Amino acid sequence: MRRSIFYLTKVLPALLLCLLFTSSSCDDELDVEPQTAINAGEALTTSQGVQSALVGAYVRLMSGTLYVGDPDAPLYTGDLNLTSELLGSTGNLIWGGTFSTFRQVFQKDITPDNILIAGIWLRSYEVINIVNNVINAVNVVEEDQRDQVLGEAHFIRGMVYFDLVRLFGLPYEPGQQNSQLGVPLVLQPTSLISEANNVPRNTVEEVYAQVIDDLTRARDLLPDRASFNESSGDEARANTYAASALLARVYLQQAGAPGNSAEAQYLTKAAEEANRVIQGGGYDLVEDFTNAFNNNENTSEDIFAIQQTVQSNAGQSNAGLATFYSYNQRAEIEVAAGFVEQYEEGDERVEVLYLDPDDLYRNGKYEIYSANVPLIRLAEMYLIRAEANQRLGTSVGATPLEDINVIRERADIPPLTSISLDDVLRERSLELAFEGQLIHDIKRLRQNVGDLPYNAGELVLPIPLREMNANPRLQQNDAYI
């Protein structure tokens, strides 16, 4: 029997301790309710156990306990979003909080002992090790479920490596060898600390190749949405269209800034994958932009979202996006008035950027601790297809003008009668604001962050100090030597 993500949300954290680095220190019988008990010793030797481990990887993407910057603080429901937005901000956001870890990122003055950065690295490789275990043990999964389990594992690994290489490595340069250092590729389960601490960094080219391989496998192995059982929580899982959507994002990143000689091959693939999602995925934009956020269930435009509940959410760790963005919580990130003024009069998207009682703007996309966190929305696919078609001079699926007007119509602003690349990029900035894409867009478009060029060492995260101390084969990024 397949267990849903919701069914196992409270069970998996204990099992994960046995899977992160396999050891005899984990008790065979977990201290959980009898109906949800899992024998850790059999976790990877039965079909149910492997599928439970896979669910554990999903849970680990969200999980957070203790305090911000702790190795257990939330990954995809907090730190990755905040790091991208704060690192790329030149005035869109203002950090006013007390945590020095985030302040360093905002000021582009990060030290290698920053525990926020250490947590991102550690938690990412924990997730990777879990899915490596799943991939390694997939043959014990029931045959009719094997492709889906394998596809989901490849999806998660590809997603995590994509974020790691963009944060810890210099930008991908289309048409170049990309021999600059990325992150270590660990593709087999590590059962001993010594194994994990003896891997060098792979090149950016090698990591991107692995990301594409993982996501392509996921796309080809996974079923579509119709094959999932919504009542069991399977909508929380990656499907073939989620893999295509993430591939579209990867190819757009590889395309780099407009005008380079290698952009066409990547833009073509980005347009094709985005078009596949738009035309075949069965997704629809929600009618009201504000309803795309702060939901306890996936919306019609959520292609992939991290699931949270009242009982299990990032806010339990004094972390998570609502903690920092919402006025009703810590309210440590302010939205600059100058950014709000970029929206046209009547643009409904500005309604999520509200004035608090102190007359400061706040980001209302993340107001509720227990709400799901959308990672990939259908709106992004329209924007990717529009940008790729505009730069290529093509109309795969639709014209760029048609795609941008779909976005503008939902925002309740007048349609454009003609379009330029600047128009497309502007809509992207306004639509996807504060959703964790800022620094990545800045780097691919070769824009500056203040006085720092897109490829400045200060815009790349340091390899965490404790990783450098533990692994003699790691090389530190130049800005931190």
From TrEMBL:
Its main location: membrane. It comes from the Bacteria. Pfam families: SusD-like_3, SusD_RagB. Keywords: Cell outer membrane, Membrane, Signal. InterPro entries: SusD-like_N, SusD_RagB_dom, TPR-like_helical_dom_sf. Residues 1-26 form the signal peptide. Residues 104-252 form the SusD-like N-terminal domain. SUPFAM superfamilies: TPR-like. One of its GO terms (cellular component) is cell outer membrane. Residues 366-445 form the RagB/SusD domain. It is found in: Cell outer membrane. Belongs to the SusD family. This is RagB/SusD family nutrient uptake outer membrane protein.
